[in-house]
Amino acid sequence: MIQHDTIELLRECDAGIQMGIYAIDEVKSHAKNPDFKRILDDYQRQYALLQNEMESVLHDYNDEGKDPAPLAKGMAWLKTNLTLAVKENDTTIADLITDGCNMGIKSLNKYLNQYKAADERAKDFTRRLIELQDRQLKDIRRYL
């Protein structure tokens, strides 16, 4: 049970990291404020570092991870592009990223509760991802 919960928790983190990278990639070219662009680039780099670490951890468990659900990714793309088509500004981008971070934090906490038997390494990794998303929320609030 421990290994099953560990792998499932890590897979959910993997999908969340990929969504974070994807979401930032979708919006950062629309950002106007240079400081905001820098913040987005910085968080995208932090997600990429976590992704590299995640690949190593999953490799230790002989697992390839999990891609985000195609429907979730498609809906995110649709919402982002429709929203930016109506109002392309930093406030809109910050709002989209805030929604994504909030969904990520909520989902990851749910998975921490669901996969209680996961090992501490997986739980710590999940908490680090939650903390990253929480910091990102705080750093972009001024653009809302």
Mean pLDDT: 92
Indicate the multimeric state: single chain
For the biggest sheet, the summary is:
none
Instruction: Indicate the percent of residues in helices.
Output: over 70%
Question: What proportion strand?
Answer: under 5%
Low-confidence stretches: none
Beta strand count:
0
Alpha-beta classification: mainly alpha
Distance between the termini: 43 Å
Radius of gyration computed on alpha carbons: 15 Å
SSE ordering: HHHHH
Number of continuous helical runs: 5
Tell me, briefly, the overall form. Answer: elongated
Word description of this protein:
- By secondary structure, this protein is mainly α.
- It is 81% helix and 0% strand.
- The protein is built from five helices and no strands.
- The protein has helices at 2-27, 34-60, 70-86, 90-114, 120-140.
- The longest helix is centred in the first third of the chain and has 27 residues, at 34-60.
- The radius of gyration is 15 Å and the shape is elongated.
Which features would summarize this protein structure in a list?
single chain; mainly alpha; 5 helices
Summarize the structure.
The chain is mainly α. The chain has helices spanning 2-27, 34-60, 70-86, 90-114, 120-140.
Task: Spell out the blueprint of helices and strands.
Layout: H1 2-27, H2 34-60, H3 70-86, H4 90-114, H5 120-140
